Amino acid sequence: MLVxxxxxxxxxxxxxxxxxxxxxxxxxxxxxxxxxxxxxVNKVSTAVQLRFDVxxxxxxxxxxxxxxxRLAGKRITENGVLIINAQRFRTQDRNRQDALDRLIExxxxxxxxxxxxxxxxxTSSSKKRRLESKRRRGxxxxxxxxxxxxxx
Length: 152
Description:
Blueprint: E1 2-5, E2 8-14, E3 20-22, E4 26-31, E5 47-53, H1 62-72, E6 81-86, H2 92-111, H3 124-144
Antiparallel strand pairs: 1-2, 2-3, 4-5, 5-6
């Protein structure tokens, strides 16, 4: 998505209807992928390391920022930089798109407001059913006991 802001064109990545991220806030670095890759594994830097500064991002509302930090877990540094490594594919372009997709998905999850839990009370009939089943179970166990015979 291309947006004109103050006479300058900016590429924006749309997350939700209200949240869009400026592409300038995302840094991509191409590194060598680990694991199998044949002849190119030691020559071509196909893996992507995406860095997104969550704490200093002007695109994210405060509540979304807090949820994103919680969701990111170990992928976020002490400075608040989210790091996503993508090396699933053999090409830079596909790994770049994979990293961006994962960032978008993570922010999209953080944008969803959690539903408030309302405390509920059990109904009187459900209490009666619970107590009745406990009574029946206790009765069953009582009938299984060994009977001690008294010696006459």
